[in-house]
Specification:
The chain is mainly alpha-helical. It has 2 helices and no strands. The longest helix has 36 residues, at 10-45.
Length: 74
């Protein structure tokens, strides 16, 4: 009985998937902080729009809620 050495071991594939998930999590976090920071900066420059921290909290809540809805259930 011969074994094929063409395919990588299962551990290497699972490690690659873990690395990809970790990378995507960091990218989501960076995008999240960028959007919240932009909303706070906009409200800081134009105080008539809203209170800066209140607007940042609202944007953060909406982004987290939408991520929770989109995330697949296991």
């Amino acid at each position: 009985m011969s074994t094929s050495t063409d395919s990588p071991p299962a551990d290497a594939e699972s490690e690659a998937v873990r690395d990809l998930k970790r990378y995507l999590l960091w990218m989501f976090l960076a995008l999240f902080l960028l959007v919240v920071g932009a909303a706070v900066y906009l409200c800081y420059q134009h105080p008539r729009l809203a209170e800066p921290l209140g607007a940042g909290g609202t944007v953060a809540s909406v982004l987290l809620a939408s991520a929770a809805v989109v995330r697949p259930r296991r």
